[in-house]
Every structure is written in structure tokens, then in C-alpha cells.
Specification:
The chain is mostly helical. Helices cover 69% and strands 0% of the residues.
Amino acid sequence: MKPVTLPVAGFVTGIGLDGFLNGIVLHQILQWDHLVCVSATCEPRSLAEAKAQTAQDGFFHLAVWVVTLAGVVLLFHAARHPQRQWKGRVLAGAMLMGWGVFNLVEGIIDHHLLRIHHVMAGSPHEALADWLFLALSALLAMVGGVDGCRAASCEAALTLRDDFSGLIAGISHFPSSMGTLPKRA
């Protein structure tokens, strides 16, 4: 098995930490949305709906806790290979990239395709908030990728691409007809 790299570990950790921040700030503190809204404003109409939303948010937090734990385990494994040079900017860039990519995927799927919740459900600025969320997410992913590239001469981004193509193929056992990402030269 190929050793885990710092960019992969940072990317996974970034996904998990973003999920926590999203759930804690948007779901619990600001109470703008929940994992699945039961009304147009995301306000429960009964105690049963409030309990259902709270349970769904709890499962979301459990899932991002597992992802964060996986990121920490991957960081531990990456640290066991001393021949690899660790750079804080590579880790930070990979984490920002994971953060941004998670939000992009979540925002496109949940806010725009499935419409199961919105950043500011029921607000007159609901659509604007959803699009700003996507724009900020794309910016985070790009800043993370560029910063990580600058810190590691783009080796981080290429390694991340190669490692994830192998990781996905290994975990999911994709049929060969689906293909793989091209290897770098």
C-alpha cells in the first residue's frame, strides 16, 4: 500500500473540521439551517419536527466526527514517513481545499439540486446566501490549492489527485470501465 501523504491527510481533516464548523455555527449557534429543513423557513412546527431536525443534525455531526478522526489517523500515518518533508503551508492549503470542496459539493447538492435546506432558509436573501456560500467555498478551495502548490511546487496538488484516484479505486473497487484519473508525467 502506498504511504499516506500530508496533502491527503490535510484534505480529509479539512472536510471533517468544516463539517463541524458548519454544524456548530450554522445549525446550532445561528440556527439558519439544519441538515434537512421541515419547512420553508427551517423552523419546526412541532416538538416532533424539532426532535427530528436535531437527530438529523446529530447524525451529521457523528459523520463529520468520523471523517475528522480519519483525517487525524491519516495525519499520524503520514508522519510515520520521515522521508517526506512536512510544510505547514502544504497542510493548511490541503485543509482549505478539503473545506472548500466539501462546501461546494454540499452546497450544490443540498441547496441547489435536492433543495433540502438553504444557508438562510426563508430569508428574502436565501438565493443570494446560497450563491455566496458557493462562491466562498470555491475561493477557499482555490486559495488552498494555490497556497499548497506554492509551498510544495504543486507537488501537493498532483499528489492529492494521484492519491485520491488510488484511494477511491481501492475503497470502491470501481469497475475498470469507469476509468481512472491520468497519472502525472
